[in-house]
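dumping this here before i forget
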Amino acid sequence: MSRPSTLTQLFALDSLLDADEIAIRDTVRDFADARLRPHIADWFEDAKLPAREIAKELGQIGALGMHLEGYGCPGMSATAYGLACLELEAVDSGIRSLVSVQGSLAMFSIHHWGSEEQKNEWLPRMAAGDAIGCFGLTEPDFGSNPSGMRTNAKRDGGDWLLNGTKMWITNGSIADVAVVWAQTDEGIRGFVVPTDTPGFSAPEIHKKMSLRASVTSELVLDNVRLPESAVLPKAQGLRGPLTSLGEARFGIIFGAIGAARDCLETAIDYARSREVFDKPLAGYQLTQAKIADMALEVGKGHLLAYHLGRLKDRGEITPEQVSTGKLNNTREAIKIARECRTILGANGITLEYPVIRHANNLESVLTYEGTSEVHQLTIGRALTGEAAFR
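structure:
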């Protein structure tokens, strides 16, 4: 099994985890090292991910919907799920995004808001990786303000007709099922949409410079006819999609710090072997100062994630606390990736090393599942009692 890194040992982080959590973390880390890490640079460069194959393997190790209970889901703790996200994003944000969208958005929505029929139909297959899900909330003109969405669903006899467009949808082009949110006469409702339904299409988005090892799509809904049984019966209003987004943001708190850790460990290894003026780069005070400062932020990011994981496991976490974790850890992770690039010099811009890939990915992680600005305002509202946005 994997051993803790020197960076992990500096903060004695394993002392904060129990034996089961360490075993789960190491299982995911070993899978990531053996199955994902050797290929990730090529997948990123080629912008092609064997997502269906990987989803099946992730299902086999229990990484899909792992914090959900029943219906074939592993029922592990929130902290264990976070640790899995951390190890997957230490390889690449795109891999963690696949898992987050599958488990924390699509599966969670069905698990939390769905009917027994919907749960039984989809969750066992999704947990096994036999079916892939996506989550349609964001639109071309409505990201931070989802209440303005134009996608709509209207009753037509005993059915619903769904029309609209969603944008920046992870897993969209390969999904078997889409959880789509739409305006109705009853407010915002969620729909479970099999992707082979006539009128549904999901063209893939190309020419990305970030999250290239991830499938990103547009969803086009053209008179998609759905039965009443497609509606998520327990979700009405924005509470439905926003609760699901909170689940995904929680995984990012852990995941982003995994990317930062990988950048820093790469920079330390490089600095120890790279000679400048006849001695290792690691032997210079400026280099050590950079490494020490980054190690503090990586360690603090871990501690914040672990603390929020314990709060979530006790059912005590608040949306403001999730925003605090997401804001801090994504913001610090991208700073660390950029600083590590300076230690690697010109080598830092190649895919021979993971640093520029992480930096590019983190540009997306910084703004999806809530931009930094929105999380700042969420925290500001909690502290002042004044809402600076609707």
